[in-house]
């Protein structure tokens, strides 16, 4: 039985990745070591998020706690933990975090062959009301041994070697792809291990959920307006789609991945490049969607083919079930 297998044949994330990496004879275990440090960061954040209300970690930075220490906001704390874990792994050279204006270049003695782009706590505006939030990350390999520069991360998403997110919700779930499908691991707090619970996740080809902030409708362009109209008032007699929008990307994307449908953060008059960041929101989620059989589109091109020029660049994004994204691609194509 599955339960027995869980008890005796523990497929932890580390063991799973070791198995994956053993397919590459040249692999020296560097990726497995890098991943184990990302997992450490996720376990820490999971624990901090769950205790936030009690530990008074909620609220604005600048407050002092009873020891008179500078109280750190959860996202600042999470960022510190991930940067320290990634640097100490000795497997990274460049880090880009949503929390840091500039990239972090690891000191020569601790450099490794990976570059990690991440949002340590995406959706953190939802923390105070207990809505699910998450960590999102993408991994590039360094292709030279010279001084690392931002050029090493200003690469299209199609050069990422791995991507994933960890959702801190009713359970703590890490969803990961190293290029051979998408796999979900659930944290077993009694073991402190992420256990494989969702092997080889595939997104339904078509879904009946659309996920967008309808509050921005007055600013949308023609194709997005037409598409959302079609979701609500289908002309072909098919049932209208359901609207589900959490406002936390990891929660909205996780539901889309498991249930199907489409997640949209379009450009609008206020934000011509949309709101979501290319390197550590759009690319990792697009990578996962394609690996799960879905697709991701910017309104102009395949999202993973974007070449970012700045590390905090934004892009519109439409991602999810293959057929649903095809529909909006057709509307943008007919607009040209
Ligand atoms: P809006 C959270 O602040 C975030 O960065 C994503 O997690 C989420 O998808 C998006 O912004 C929500 O933005 O404008 O709909 O509140």
TrEMBL record:
Its cofactor is Mg(2+). Residues 11-199 form the Fructose-1-6-bisphosphatase class I N-terminal domain. Its EC number is 3.1.3.11. Pfam families: FBPase (PF00316), FBPase_C (PF18913). Keywords: Carbohydrate metabolism, Cytoplasm, Hydrolase, Magnesium, Metal-binding. Belongs to the FBPase class 1 family. This is Fructose-1,6-bisphosphatase, cytosolic. It comes from Arabis alpina (Alpine rock-cress).
